[in-house]
Structures are given as C-alpha cells and as structure tokens.
Amino acid sequence: MEHFHGVQLAEVGKSITEIIDFELSQDQGPNVVRQGVDHDLDELKRTYEGLESLLAQVAHHVAQSVPEALNANINVVFFPQIGFLIAIPQDPITGHGVFEGPEDDPWEKMFTTEDYAYYKNENVIEMDSYFGDIYGRICDREIEIIHELAVKISQYEDLLTAASDICAEIDW
C-alpha cells in the first residue's frame, strides 16, 4: 500500500470525467466526449443535430418536382459514409422508385430496400459536398480526443496497476 497515491488517482479520475460523458456514452456508444471539451467537435455535433430539420426542408423542396398524382412519400436521409439520399417508395412491379427525377435531370439510383429506392440528385450531392461525412468527422474527432486522454492516462500505468491490485486484494 505504500506505492498507492490517492491524490494522483483522483487526478486521473478527474481527467477522465472531464472528457467522457458517461450518461451519453451509455445511450449512444462506447465513449462520447463531453460538450465543451473541443469547440470544433461541439460545432460538428450541433450541425449534425440540426440535420433533421434541414432534411425535412430539402425533402419538401424535392417533393415539389414530383407529380402530385403519385402521392409519393419522399424523404431525404443521411447515411454515414454514403451521404445524403432521396428516399422514395419503390414500385413493387418495376423495382424502381415511383419517380426517378425529371426527364431532363434524372436522379442516380444508389440502392433499394424492400420498400424504398434511394437516389442522388444535384441537391443531395451539393449537401454531400458541403457537409461531407459529418458523422464520420464527429467519430474521428472523438477518437482523437480519447486517444489523447489514453496517452495522458498511460503515464499513470504503475499507479493504476497498484490501485487495481489493491482492489483485487480487497475483493479477494
């Protein structure tokens, strides 16, 4: 027990809790970086959280080019690494979307699911260019921050090993 330094251990714990948001990590994934740790990360997350309203606006704009007679439920969605896509109901007979863009500017089909066909058009390609893979950038930045934390904590390896050994003795 003479090698155990409680103050240093408390500093390690404080370093971790200042970076990791444990409540959000439980809900969203393995390690979520706390708001306020990194300004750029906070901006990316704010933008990502605001995408839903933007997607609804773009879907409304795209729907205006679809003939009303089709009564198509159009959505604009975002998939990490794929980007922004127009989702339109699929015609079960043809396997194509019930609408595939105007004749003079057809949409590019990316893939289909059981009920929907997913397309790219100029609007979503422009969004891809502007936002990029925002979710991927958020994940990458969180990984960088957590790696920096791990490097900082690794300086206390002996302390953490001693604390772990003491806990094991107590638990024994």
Automatic annotation (TrEMBL):
Taxonomic superkingdom: Eukaryota
GO biological process, one term: chiasma assembly
MF-aspect GO terms: ATP binding; ATP-dependent DNA damage sensor activity; mismatched DNA binding
One GO location term (cellular component): nucleus
Similarity comment: family membership: Belongs to the DNA mismatch repair MutS family.
Name of the protein this chain belongs to: Uncharacterized protein
